[in-house]
Amino acid sequence: MMAADGDDALVVAGMAAALRPGGRLALSAFNAYFAVKYHADAEFDADTGVSHERTEIRSESGEPKTVDLWTGCYTPRELRLLLGAHGFAVDAVCSVEPGQYGSHSATTESPEFLVIASR
User: What is the CATH number for 37?
Assistant: First the structure.
């Protein structure tokens, strides 16, 4: 979802600018609680809310390369505050699995949160 390098406010401001008044936003974000609880292969920086891990990717020809992944992680409260500060009304924050979106209450057990908001 949002940039892990502190540009979160700029990204959300851009989303707000792109929507007409009354426009709707669906946004997914990595669940910080899940990252701390289950993401054992990553290091979570509680100060920045960023999870760091190294993984292997492969080129089209199959050549392996180890790369860094930096993922911004969020709590429902942080998402509500961030979006609210940019004029969004948050309608729901739901716990979801990637590609399996629904309206389940936010928990520590899902890898992502789905935020539904309007401007």
Answer: 3.40.50.150
